TrEMBL record:
Biased composition (Polar residues): 10-19, 28-38
GO biological process entries: autophagy; protein transport; retrograde transport, endosome to Golgi
Species in which this protein is naturally found: Schizosaccharomyces osmophilus
MF terms in GO: phosphatidylinositol binding
The gene coding this protein: snx41
GO cellular component: cytosol; endosome membrane
Protein name in the entry: PX domain sorting nexin Snx41
Family the UniProt entry places it in: Belongs to the sorting nexin family.
Amino acid sequence: MDFFEDNNPFGDQNPNRLSESSKHSEEQSASATQQNQNENDDNIAWNLKASLEEKGRKATFWKDSNVKEDDLPSAIFITGAVKAERGNHIVYNIKVNNSEVQRRYSEFASLRVQFERLYPTCLVPVLPDKHKIMDYVFNMTKSQRTTRLLEERKRLLQSFLRRVALHPRLGKSDIFFKFLSRHVSWNDVLHSAPISLLPKDSLKVHPENPASNEYTDTYSRLPVPSKMSLPVESYDEVSRSYLSLENSLRNYSVNLQEHLSRINRGVFSISQMSLACSNLGATFNALSLSETAQLMAALEKVGQANDQTCLSGIDFIHGLVVDAIEPLSEVSKSAKSMRHIIIFRRMKYIQNVVVKDLLRKKRGLLNQLERREQQASRLQSAIEGNDGVLDDETRNLLEASKSASQSLYGPEQQRDGLNGRNRPLLSDLHENFGQALGNEHEVDEQIDSERIQEYARELANTQHQQSEVASSETSVSTVLLPRKVRDVFDQIRFAFNGLADNNVEANRHNSMGWTIESIHHLETMAELTSRDLEFVTASIGSEYERYKRIHQEDMSTVCNKFADRHIEWADRNIRAWRNIRQDLTSNVM
């Protein structure tokens, strides 16, 4: 009980308890402010140290690579894919002018994951899949499939690094330069700051700087709601516009996947046609061996034309994969990534609404507790003011109830003599009697004294019933239970009686203290979530504008190259068959 009283700002039973609780709350606020100031000082020192280390690493990287910062995107090349010296995995050689480092595919994937954790509002470029369906379209051996996969990965990983270097925030990130540096082990990067400081949930960090240690305790207490915890009808206008944008991005990504499936089916048909032309060319070449000189030349020319058609079809397929299928796949994945960023903004909005709703409920609870405190104060004042009106019987009942409470629980515990089952009765009596005395200037003193006498009789009867119940429980437990078991239950009962607080007034004061503390934390959470929501909205808005610009450029390039590949394929076939027709016309006919 002493522990609860020492930590309860409303524990003192005196007329100045409210002022003392306010003073205690001010002391807590001052202590929290001082603690936040110390955390901010530590955060500034840590950021300064990290900034100096980052500048040193970047200076070393620029010195090794001998390249200007503006020329970095065009200076990144993946020159090869070789087997690692230790292990059976493949590593890719990343060359930046004079500097070269080897990284495996899993490290590329890890880099992208860390980018998403460190920059939750930035659109991180996409990576190629581990396995492609197109690898199984052709009848290739395992070695041919591996070669094709490695070549595709080299192109897409190089595109990934260049897009990261072009990004205004990702390209200047410290971990990006660590990834390109040959002096840094990527495993050490993953187990060092700032990555080691990141929590698992991105909703419990500062979106602008997730590795910051500012307000870490407050962020760790933030609720993590689900997407369905808030109905769409409750969204504001901005959130509804982002929700429609999210749906349009999902539909766009699905449509792109459908078009990619159609292109893949077309590529498969062209591959079958190329295979048929190859077989047909071999057949004409075989027939030419058994014919006369003039017919043999004609058949050989037709076989060569079929072979050229087969080769042009293979080149056309390769061009479609490189210039159309791979870029469209990147565009589809980028749309998914952009949608995930918008979902993150929706989650931050729901989180802000949930925190504000909790704050509103806590304030309502505090108002209710304050009204009960005022009613109890009026009740106490009425009892003290009508002390001379009470008769001897009522005064004896009040004194008997007070002495029974002290003898039952002890003077140190200051119990009110009521257990948990009878507590609602006393609470109702307090509330009803307080309401009756709310307009005490208009009520007759005789009526007040009668109600006080009735209240004292009810209190004495309640305590008498409690003592009878306690004695009956003790007698039953003494008769039915063995001594060892009874001793164990007595110890458990003693522990629970020590923890349980049957004092209604003390419970109310404790609830007010806890509620005020919760309101203080929720106000800080509401301020942080509102500020984070503003930053996320502004950052995602600018990121979406950048995404639209890059998307338009990519789609324009894809469409132009797609048309150029078709024109080139058709032109090669026309030239081949026109030459054959001229030869046949001049030599055979």
